[in-house]
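Data availability (excerpt). The following record was deposited with the supplementary files.
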Amino acid sequence: MMHSTRPRRHSSLRPTASASPIAASARPEECRSSLASTLGTMDYWNPTVTDGLAHDREVILFNNAGVSSSSGEVPTTFEQMAADAIAFIKALGLKQVDLFGFSIGGMVVQEITLQAPDLVRRLIIDGAGPRGGQGMELIAQATGRLFGATYDTPENVWLAVKFSPSAAGQAAGREFLKRTHLRQVGRDPEVNDKVSPAQVEAIGKWGVRQKGSDDYLKTIKQPTLIVNGSNDVNIPTVNSFIMQQNMPNAQLIIYPDSNHGAHHQYPELFVEHATLFLNP
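Predicted structure:
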């Protein structure tokens, strides 16, 4: 049996084997995984969250293909990102996983579940939405405005992207930024200029609304925890309600006075909720 109080970190195993944080359970046949967010690397994960989850399960972090320390090219569809993640999980010899996907990862874990349903036991979808969801076609514009604005220091973009504008929200954001700098040895390199265009293209394809775009949600039968902030300025919060209403075994948590990174704003509370969900 495997236990860890710190996440394990991986680069991709091959150019097509992707990416992103995974949390593995203490049972060797199961793995619990989470996927990184837009422009993020493994170091952008809140250690209060990843270390908290690692108290009673192994946590494995890995970068998506073409992101930071992982080789390969960043796919321009979430379908291919999911296929890469499946290849990575299987390369580790894991038979069943719990997936935790934030932002782009929240879309990718949906695709993983569709492509390899037997591989997935439970999933957490955080700050994400369904194919063709409400306002999803405008995500690229919203993120473009946020990332294109001027900030006192470059990293303060995350205060606007992930945290509410209230005093409490901004204070939580500053604490989050401090925690992301705790790890100084072996930090990931920042993403290169090829990452954002590929991810924006993938977001654009996912956001196109067509008849029956979200019908697939009814086929995701795994127990699912959907999490979001009360006012997500990147992916409108209403999409979390849409997913919960259409996925047959989903529950929903909306955190108050929060934005796209609600789990960063309430890390201890989120870990409690996630642990209860993952340990039925």
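Summary of structural features: The longest strand covers residues 96-102.
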